Design the sequence.
């Protein structure tokens, strides 16, 4: 096992899951819900305790819906834009960054005010929070997974987002801890898992997603080409580029019907890969040495004060204990 183990948290994915999974009746003494704060801290405690990472990052959405992706594909996450421009601002504006696109993501009123508290607690703990203006947490994760693998570290990506299956790579030591079925039932996603589930290797997963589409992100896909047909085409031709080349060459393995469907969607196929593929080469201004998981809170007094102010109960104690046992 590598000496260095890097854990990358898809933070928004986790605090949304915490919000919906922990009752909003969990409040501070003033009645302010703190269920997302406590839930996220307990999630981190669990994963640190189980996997003992040496490095850990809370990857952040500085922009949940980057304008450059919207310019490529206008439908991108459109259905998640808040009807009220002020709605969700606490979520999107966390960390002093916000959405460069100027629109807020629809989110529960009780969640937004908890996000700054999450950041305050992470700061007191000394856990790295990394984002990049104009990019999503997925792109930060893609970049840091690449950095960690290049440094010889084992990389675990904790997320409920299947888009990140494209990063899985046994040879590089990158896997996904997939929490869609719940934290206690999370799955360890490796090459074989993706191949068995989708009939493609992880390296082809993003191309499959382009063809299949993803309604949760406003990715329409190619009408008439679903997951099964997409997987069959990728098995024969290796990539979307290979499929389109075969279709253009009238390769008999691409039927006339499929060629017609691809042709009808050619404008979409020209831009969708850049939307779906995560960025892996951002200049984040940090190296692996900046991401070491502390063995105790960086500011114990601040952590204690936050725990008292927000009635965080045993959550701060549990995460402090997990850090102490992480080595």
Sequence:
């Amino acid at each position: 096992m590598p000496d260095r183990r890097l854990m990358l948290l898809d933070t928004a994915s986790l605090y949304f899951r915490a919000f919906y999974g922990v009752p909003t009746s969990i409040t501070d003494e003033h009645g302010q819900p703190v269920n997302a704060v406590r839930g996220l801290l307990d999630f981190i405690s669990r994963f640190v305790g189980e996997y003992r990472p040496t490095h850990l990052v809370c990857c952040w959405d500085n922009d949940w819906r980057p304008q450059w992706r919207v310019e490529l594909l206008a439908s991108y996450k459109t259905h998640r834009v808040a009807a009220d421009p002020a709605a969700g601002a606490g979520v999107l504006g966390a960390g002093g960054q916000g959405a460069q696109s100027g629109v807020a993501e629809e989110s529960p009123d009780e969640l937004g005010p908890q996000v700054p508290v999450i950041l305050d607690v992470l700061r007191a703990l000394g856990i790295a929070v990394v984002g990049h203006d104009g990019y999503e947490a997925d792109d930060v994760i893609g970049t840091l997974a690449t950095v960690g693998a290049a440094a010889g570290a084992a990389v675990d990506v904790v997320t409920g987002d299947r888009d990140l299956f494209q990063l899985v790579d046994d040879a590089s030591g990158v896997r996904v801890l997939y929490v869609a079925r719940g934290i206690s039932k999370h799955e360890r996603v490796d090459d074989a898992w993706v191949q068995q589930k989708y009939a493609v290797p992880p390296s082809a997963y993003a191309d499959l997603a382009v063809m299949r589409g993803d309604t949760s992100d406003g990715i329409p896909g190619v009408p008439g080409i679903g997951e099964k047909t997409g997987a069959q085409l990728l098995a024969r031709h290796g990539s979307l580029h290979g499929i389109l080349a075969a279709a253009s060459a009238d390769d008999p393995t691409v039927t006339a019907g499929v060629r017609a469907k691809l042709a009808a969607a050619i404008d979409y196929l020209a831009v969708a890969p850049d939307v779906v593929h995560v960025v892996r080469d951002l200049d984040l201004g940090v190296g692996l040495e900046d991401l070491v998981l502390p063995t105790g809170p960086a500011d114990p007094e601040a952590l204690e004060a936050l725990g008292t102010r927000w009635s965080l109960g045993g959550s701060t104690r549990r995460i402090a204990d997990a850090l102490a046992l992480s080595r």
The radius of gyration is 21 Å. Residues 35-51 form the longest helix (17 residues).
